[in-house]
Amino acid sequence: MFHFDIFCRVVDNYGDIGVCWRLARQLAAPPHQKNVRLWVDDLQSFKRLEPRLQTELNEQHIDGVTVHPWKDVQAFTLPPAEVVIEAFACELPDTYKAAITDQTLWLNLEYLSAEDWVEDFHTQPSPQQQGQRKYFFFPGFTERTGGLLREENLKQQRLSWQQDQRNAQALWTKIGLSERTQIELMHGQRRQILLFSYPSAPVMALLQALQQGNHDTLVLSPTPFTPEQQVLSNDHLQLHHFNFVSQVEFDHLLWSSDLNFVRGEDSLVRALWAAKPFIWQPYEQEEGLHTKKLQALLNHSPMNQAVQTLMHTWSSQDSLQFTDQYLSCMQAPMWHRWREEALQWHNTLLQQTDLCTHLLEFCTKHQPTQ
Ligand code: TRH
Questions:
Q1: Using a 6 Å cutoff on CB, does residue 282 contact ligand 1?
Q2: How far apart are CA 347 and CA 344, in angstroms?
Q3: What spacing in Å lies between the alpha carbon of 266 and ligand 1's midpoint?
Q4: What is the pLDDT of residue 319?
Q5: CA angle 246, 20, 125 (to 5 degrees)
Q6: Ordered structural domains, the chain, with CATH
Q7: Positive or negative CA dihedral for 152, 155, 158, 161?
Q8: pTM over 0.85
Q9: Residues known to be catalytic
């Protein structure tokens, strides 16, 4: 039985806490049922994706995880857990670091990338001055990496949620969709698009393409539409802003949509598990590193060239190209092909060992000799 301490600093956006919260819950849930403490420096951001969180509490229990605010001034009097996860090189508190002995396994959980070098760096030691046992742990898309976060029975959960239309109706009601729109969605008379993107994405070009397209569409976005975008809204193209929902409901939005636009790393993985067509916008990095990350991901995918090009265009903010490329990908037979490829990709990844299983195997292998 391993006890875990997970440390998370919210740098910007929601990816850091998004990943740490999923990891914590998955370790605490069956079949693993580990003892997990999660230390988070920004409970306000955390609350956006976990509304049950009470930001004023020093200790609380949600889904079997003990959540603590991580205050920099806090003296850590509790002994370190057997396994310490320092998420995304967030730098542990000095007092806590000093208390780590060779009885503790210390892991630096890294960002997800499909690049080839990840396999070589995964599980490499990171030598420490005090001789503590620290290792890198890289999520990834192959068996020689730490794999992807995936809940037990996720596919079955998704299929049973999708089978009962009342689930989607309850979700749509919660985010404020009219009854008429819900009926159109249920009868396939309107396509649903989830739009979760960075401000640089060519959203205007997407909306113009949708206006020209043959299908009535609903676009759901957690970012309010600008007045300029709002002007394009009519019966053919409905634009709907929703307030951030919980991570569980975010999955449901992905499951109920026909096409998902996602960004960063956590929503990418969730879009893969939704088994629906998606367009990924990587987190922008200097020297175009994000473009390499996108291509590395696509190299692992069964996506046809037109879809690959479309994803690059979305990320390169090329509005002029985007409209035409998008319209052609959404036409039959291209659209059907895209859907089949998304399902195929999902099924392939589902065969791989998930991140928590990889992590626990690693912990067992590196258990301290008493
Ligand atoms: O928010 P992000 O852009 O996070 C980013 C990236 O991960 C990036 O790589 C990292 O370096 C940077 O943060 C610091 O995108 P991401 O990773 O998809 O995280 C969003 C999280 O928010 C994810 O867990 C899903 C969740 N979410 C909800 O729970 N409800 C919502 O309504 C929405 C829109 C998102």
A1: no
A2: 5
A3: 6
A4: 84
A5: 165
A6: 3-150+353-364 (3.40.50), 158-350 (3.40.50.2000)
A7: negative
A8: yes
A9: 16, 265
